[in-house]
Amino acid sequence: MFDTALKPVHPIDLRTYLVADMATIGAGDVVRIIDEAVAGGATTVQIRGKQLGDAELLRIVTAVADRLDGRATLLVNDRVDVYLAAREAGAAVHGVHIGQSDGGAEAVRERIGVHAVLGLSAAAPEHLAEAAALPPGVVDYLGVGAVRATPTKPDAPEPLGWDGLAHAIALAGDLPCVAIGGVGPGDARDARAAGAAGLAVVRAICAAADPRAAARALREEWDRGRTPNVLSIAGSDPSGGAGIQADLKSIQATGGYGMAAVTALTAQNTRGVTGVHVPPVAFLRDQLEALSEDVRIDAVKIGMLANASVIEAVASWIAGLASRPAVVLDPVMIATSGDRLLDADASRALDALIALADVITPNLSELAALVSGEVAGSWEAALEQARTLAARHGVLVLAKGGHLEGDTAPDALVSAAGVVASFESPRIDTANTHGTGCSLSSALATIYAREAADPVAGEPDTDAWAWSARLAHEWIHGAILAADGLDVGQGNGPLDHSYSARAGLVAPRRDAELDAWWGDIVPIVDGIHGDDFVKSLGEGTLDAARFETYIAQDSVYLFAYSELLARAGELSTDPAEKAFWRASAEAAIATEMELHRSRGAGERVPASRETARYLAHLDRSSGEHAVLVAALLPCFWIYEQVGLTLAAKNHDGHPFGDWLSTYGSPEFTESTQQAIALVQRAARRADDATLARMRQAFVLSSRHERAFFAQA
Ligand SMILES: Nc1ncnc2c1ncn2[C@@H]1O[C@H](COP(=O)(O)OP(=O)(O)OP(=O)(O)O)[C@@H](O)[C@H]1O
Ligand SMILES: Cc1ncc(CO)c(N)n1
Ligand SMILES: [Mg+2]
């Protein structure tokens, strides 16, 4: 029965649309390629298998559906029967995409019912006009093209070009259109300008060496249009290094659209502040109202506030907003030069504003002032003050060690419970740090707004802030490093906000960490795929004795591995996470017992050299939660990837059929996704040294995985 829960939300997400063409992909690779593409950001996948028989296509569609499990909209090209059969079998497949010659949209809609997705290809003006004239609800979207000539459709009519596409999309009325035909990441802007809702590609992903990276490139280019709107409420620094000027530059550099409402004007240069003018506070209210009446505001960074009435105006404006943006408050009190930027009597008013903030970013002297204490002489003392402040106001505090002595410049995100994440960079020997605090807080607000637009399911907000703070810290470090290259003034000069753009760097992304780890092990994983044992296992030609040896060692491994999974559960402090590792430990030992029984319950064999070494490495990693989970991950992730390839080769009567099916199962994929998410979370909270240890443990485990397969 078709489960209406599978019905995707309309309108469907066409941003990054993969046409998985079975003439381009081999049947053995299809699940992996589609999975990678979706992991990279593909939003909709259409499986096209014109040359395949129904049974074969059905098998592929079902395997892909099981794998994706609703993470992207999944459609079948042309073959309504195959779609209906897959749906009948309970697969998470959402609809069909048909061409002009496939029996008419209305007839297909009759067959698939109202909940299914129906897409239609159209290029000629008369087809577009026909589609636009259909009753609502018959067709959900149109595939329009070819924009350019392509080898996948050599018989296609004259390509449309961008003007032709715009014209065609205009004819389609309010039906969303995805542009197809020779398009790639570089076309996002043109396609959007022509009115398209996304880009559809075949070879750009299917034939790519790295389908995940290819999908990500497409999606990122498309999403560039979803830039967060970030507002700075701060003072003006005419020298451009601090205040709203620094904020706007930082917001732009880290991927936001910058706006600024001015609280105060300073007369200032790199040597200091010579005057402050605070315009009537009513005019600040006018500025803020003008914005909130018109513009969606994703994040707010608050800087210089000058006096208590400005603070109150900002606080009441934020409190009255219909939807609360992310708020980062940089409690500016005294400039680097020593000049006061906030009246001494305004501190109390600040409390009300702090309560509305998500994160506050005091430097050492501001931190001391906010807890009415002495300026911390050590980083430990600063962290303790930050914890006190966080507890008092229920906010996160980004403590900054820029003004400490020492070889490093530490920052830490602190909650009432203590340090959430810490980031440390070598201290840069430069006097050009004017506006670092302004720039860091704006970058933090922007990166958070950008990341929060694409949240990781179930991720606590604190983790998203921790991760954003890490990226902001890395970005500011680069801007300080580049500062001496500028020549602005004779005092403490500004940072170079544009260094990242000039270097052609994309503002950093959240998933970069685990992607980089996977990048480390790609050659290792390739080696496993090419391993003789793995290949002959898939082909079913493996010698039974070799399989036996392998299974015996797998038993030995699982026995100890189960204990280590349980240990990860013990070390974890989160109940859901504990439950996951414990359940995995039980599953591992249950599998071990099953294997043992299947081998006739004889004597358990001793560990081989390879198995013993792998286990020793895991054992050595088991002292620290973050490192242990990183070390355990390859056994999920690599096994799952190898398992999927093997499962694709499974068939009735395969000599190792039962075994192959376990590792290609949706349950194992689900566990792997959870393990990845948990490690990702640990990585986001880790300090730099721990992060390095995690990555090392992960890579080393992957090498052991390879040796483990190779021993058989
Ligand atoms: N010399 C340095 N080398 C490396 N990083 C630094 C240096 N000075 C400051 N930072 C970094 O710059 C950021 C701002 O920290 P800082 O403590 O200077 O804030 P601040 O005093 O509020 O800045 P501002 O003077 O702009 O108000 C932090 O991430 C800090 O680690
Ligand atoms: C306008 C302004 N805001 C903040 C600071 C803090 O650096 C500054 N120097 N000037
Ligand atoms: Mg500051």
TrEMBL record:
Pfam families xrefs: Phos_pyr_kin, TENA_THI-4, TMP-TENI
Q: Which residues does the UniProt record annotate as the domain Thiaminase-2/PQQC?
A: 523-710
- The segment(s) forming the Thiamine phosphate synthase/TenI domain are 17-205
**Binding-site residues, 2-[(2R,5Z)-2-carboxy-4-methylthiazol-5(2H)-ylidene]ethyl phosphate:** T150, P151, T152, G182
Can you quote the record's cofactor note?
A: Binds 1 Mg(2+) ion per subunit.
* Gene3D superfamilies according to UniProt: 3.40.1190.20, Aldolase class I, Heme oxygenase-like
Could you list this entry's UniProt keywords, alphabetically sorted: ATP-binding, Kinase, Magnesium, Metal-binding, Multifunctional enzyme, Nucleotide-binding, Thiamine biosynthesis, Transferase
Pathway(s) where this gene product acts: Cofactor biosynthesis; thiamine diphosphate biosynthesis; 4-amino-2-methyl-5-diphosphomethylpyrimidine from 5-amino-1-(5-phospho-D-ribosyl)imidazole: step 3/3; Cofactor biosynthesis; thiamine diphosphate biosynthesis; thiamine phosphate from 4-amino-2-methyl-5-diphosphomethylpyrimidine and 4-methyl-5-(2-phosphoethyl)-thiazole: step 1/1
Q: Where is the Pyridoxamine kinase/Phosphomethylpyrimidine kinase domain?
A: 237-495
Binding residues annotated for Mg(2+), in chain numbering: D78, D102
Role played: Condenses 4-methyl-5-(beta-hydroxyethyl)thiazole monophosphate (THZ-P) and 2-methyl-4-amino-5-hydroxymethyl pyrimidine pyrophosphate (HMP-PP) to form thiamine monophosphate (TMP). Catalyzes the phosphorylation of hydroxymethylpyrimidine phosphate (HMP-P) to HMP-PP, and of HMP to HMP-P.
Family statement: Belongs to the thiamine-phosphate synthase family.
**What name does this protein carry?**
Thiamine-phosphate synthase
Give the originating organism: Microbacterium nanhaiense
